Amino acid sequence: MAFPIPSHLPRQQDVSSKILSKIDEATGQTLNASLASSWLAELDETIQLTKKRIHDRIHADLPAFERQLSSSKSVQERLKSLTNNVDNLNETLSNPETQSGLVPTLVKALTAHAALAQQTTNATTTHNALLHLQRCRSEFNSLSSLVQVGRLPEAVEASKGLNTLLDEAPIPLSQADVIHDIKRRFRALKDRTEEQLSDAYTQSIFVTASEIKIRSSVQIRKSDTILELSSILSSLSPSSFSSHLATLRRDITTHYIDHILSQPCSTTVSPGSGGDHQLSQFPSPPNSEDRTARLENMCTILTFLQTHLFAFLPPSQNEAFPKSLCKPLSIAILNRLLIPSLPSSLGLLPVFLELVKRATEFEDKYIVGILGYAAHDREIKAWADGVSGHYERKRRMDILESARVVIVDAEDDGTFMAELAKQVAEPEVIPVQGGESVQEDTDALWGLDEGSKEETDENGWGFDDEEEPEPEMEPEPTTEQNDDPADAWGWNDEETSPVDDDPWGEELDEPTRPPAAPSISKPTSRLEKPSTKGKGPHTNGTSSTKSTDTRPRQITTKAPPKETYLVSGRTKNIIRLVEDALHESREFASSQLFSSSISLPGTLILRSALSIFDLYRALYPVTFGAHFALSSELALRFSNDCLYLSEETGKLESAVPGDSPLKQNFEDTKENLKVLGDSWFEDSIDNQRQSVNEILTAAAGFTDTGEQDQYDACESAITRVLQEIRLLAPQWKGVLPRSKYYIALGFVVDAALSRVLADILALPDIPEVESHRLSELCRILNALEGLFVEDTKQPSFVVAYVPSWLKFSYLSELLEASIADISYLFEEGALVDFEVDELVKLVRALFADTNLRTATVNKLMGGHPLPQ
């Protein structure tokens, strides 16, 4: 084998490889004899050169070469000698032909010895197995005889020894059929023993729903042996004994702890014959029961069990089983005796506190003392320390449950009229100084133009520069009989006097003033029509006068009329519950039944009074929300209920001491009820405004009213709105106070007028025919003015509650006015309710493009004239 060249040394290609490469490169055309001869000559030359290099190498260091050659020959001779010696030794040790060598002889001897050792081991194993089997048989026969005569405790001890023998059986014996048979018979015998012990246990301890029987000794069935209770209990297997104790604990807990602590019972202990002991229970009359008797019964039961059962328990259960009754007993005393006995009135608390005291004493003596419960884990004592809070929490639940029944009751206790706490402020008596007096501005009372003292010309629009002072002004009719658009539609035929069926009319013994009105964003100073229109007087507001009388006098004022509103009778029941809770809280705080360590007794009951309002706010809208969606009258009555409860809360707040931390809670509750009432009031108005908008959607923006079908659709929509508001007014009037009634009704009317105004002012082009028809449609809604009249002899106060009334009234006139009339009204400041852009757009829509229109538009774009 050639010596491999290391990878790091340069490799040289040998001659044979080179020649083979040349042969590989030769083709059929280039291969010839001369080429082959050159290859042979090259190979021969290379061989000669190699021989020469070898020769030169040897002779370059001939002595060393000779030494290595001599050494090689010596090694070869010694190897040959060693090989011969090894062959001779192998022949001596093992002769495969004659089997006379040392190894075959030794193997024969060892084989014979192993056979003899195996025989000895088999004999020994058989002897040991037979000996162990004999012991098992003896123990089994002894156990069988003990079981047969009923000596069960000794049988249990014997079975432990036999079980040990069977577990320690030699391995060869453990696999034998005989040992399997003994084990099977031993299990049967053991089960029989356990069965007899269980039977003896059931004879010794007998628990039913009416009695407990415990026998100190019992005779084993089918034998003459009598066993003591302690022997029976200690002989039972751990699993069987645990099962029996679990059943016993369940029966005692169910039939004697839970039952006796839940119902009135009596218990008696009677000793029987032959060491039998019996405890019986039977029902007692519930009417005259003293609940401390239940604890006395538990004392009797635990004493009976301690004397006749716990003392005979084996050491493994002597402490564990009594302790296992502690938790069920403590829970039963709390959940079945103390908590259900929490009184519902303060007068019953002393008796209950005596029961609590007796329960804590019972816990100390029996649960901790006899049953061995941990002294630091006294649940009854911990509960008793907080009995004040428990009582208040129970009362809170009772109070809130009573409130819940009242709140969700579908049958209300009728309704009543409550008086509004904040009446409409009447003007004060103003003494006139310096011999001068001023008649009060009626417009200011209604929230109209403050500071406006101009009069209305009875026969014209009142644009004359001169004013005629009148010491007494007779109110002008709101509309001329012949010019009332409602007459043409026949609505006045079925109109009744606004005073008829007035829910507030019985309180109005004097001429009424309109209730306080909301402020108007853009009051106008003029309502009069231009005299150039050739129509009679039309007044939508009231006039103010400036008195020139110099006689000193005072303005006579009258007491403001009382405002009432409809409230559900349910609210009185709620207030009554709150008052009762407040009264109970005060009584509880002053009762001195608990130690002084309790801070602020009665606080939770006091909070419960406020929680009634919270429960009402949360529960009532959810319970009756579907009814509110169907009737705005019911929704507004709920708003009134919240307002009434808010006012009553303010009255109840006076009963709370000023330094009480709950003072602010009363303020918050009062405010929350007011906010809820205002929210439902506003939502009801918004729903009606939305309903009006939906009806007017059918008018399609009042476009193309020149076509009869479209005009009929617009007329139908306007008529429906009028009817809707007229039907709504008496419903709301019977529920709301006067001030809120006119505010609510004004918002709905304003929604209708604003929608009509927006749609008409948005029209890009209004031909003459359409302008007349739009004016007629607008005049239909003028009949709504009658809803804002309380005295037919007095003018209406519609302007005070419908911000867009003046603007809407002028719109119907502007639709039929000439461009000169519009310019004149603008210069006189009568159109201040309109934005400049609205007037410009309206003029461009009504009139053709002329120089006059252009001049008018330029005048309008200059802005409204400043008031004089």
Automatic annotation (TrEMBL):
<protein>
    <recommendedName>
        <fullName>ZW10 C-terminal helical domain-containing protein</fullName>
    </recommendedName>
</protein>
<dbReference type="InterPro" id="IPR046362">
    <property type="entry name" value="Zw10/DSL1_C_sf"/>
</dbReference>
<feature type="region of interest" description="Disordered">
    <location>
        <begin position="448"/>
        <end position="562"/>
    </location>
</feature>
<feature type="compositionally biased region" description="Polar residues">
    <location>
        <begin position="539"/>
        <end position="557"/>
    </location>
</feature>
<feature type="domain" description="ZW10 C-terminal helical">
    <location>
        <begin position="717"/>
        <end position="860"/>
    </location>
</feature>
<dbReference type="GO" id="GO:0006888">
    <property type="term" value="P:endoplasmic reticulum to Golgi vesicle-mediated transport"/>
</dbReference>
<dbReference type="InterPro" id="IPR055148">
    <property type="entry name" value="ZW10_C_2"/>
</dbReference>
<dbReference type="GO" id="GO:0007094">
    <property type="term" value="P:mitotic spindle assembly checkpoint signaling"/>
</dbReference>
<dbReference type="GO" id="GO:0005737">
    <property type="term" value="C:cytoplasm"/>
</dbReference>
<feature type="region of interest" description="Disordered">
    <location>
        <begin position="267"/>
        <end position="291"/>
    </location>
</feature>
<feature type="compositionally biased region" description="Acidic residues">
    <location>
        <begin position="455"/>
        <end position="509"/>
    </location>
</feature>
<dbReference type="Pfam" id="PF22766">
    <property type="entry name" value="ZW10_C2"/>
</dbReference>
<dbReference type="GO" id="GO:1990423">
    <property type="term" value="C:RZZ complex"/>
</dbReference>
